[in-house]
Amino acid sequence: MVALAVAAAAHAAAAAGRAVEAMIGAVRTSLKKGQMVTIVGFGTFYVGKRAARSGRNPRTGAAIKIKAAKVPKFRAGKALKDALN
Predict the structure, then answer these.
(1) Is 71 helix (H, G, I), strand (E, B) or coil?
(2) What are the domain boundaries of the chain?
(3) Quick check: 25 and 18 in contact, CB under 8 A?
(4) CA dihedral 53, 54, 59, 61 (to 10 degrees)
């Protein structure tokens, strides 16, 4: 991703790396606050909820309870989908 940013924007590799890291940090911070992040032409990052459920320990086969959790999710935008097809 950094190499593509350097080639496309003709910036120094270090500056492109900092820009990518800053963007990822901003997405992470927004998701921690429960906010949705939309990057036009790319897609939307959002927080989903995974319900509590029962499972099995693969080593012992014992039944276990898995807690509910918040999980990051991504929905690709139309432009990204069209670029792949």
Answers:
(1) strand
(2) 1-34, 36-85
(3) no
(4) -160
Contact 43, 75 (CB under 8 A): yes
Q: What is the pLDDT of residues 49-83, one digit of tens each?
A: 999 999 999 999 999 999 999 999 999 999 999 99
Q: Which helix (H) or strand (E) holds 35?
A: none
Query: What gap in Å lies between CA 70 and CA 7, rounded to an integer?
Result: 36
Q: Are 44 and 74 in contact (CB under 8 A)?
A: yes
CA distance 38 to 27: 9
One of 4.10.520.10, 1.10.520.10, 1.10.150.120, 1.10.3720.10 is the CATH number of 36-85, namely 4.10.520.10
* Tens digits of residue pLDDT in 9-55: 665 777 778 888 999 999 999 999 999 999 999 999 999 999 999 99
HSE (side-chain half, CA atoms, 13 Å) at 79: 7
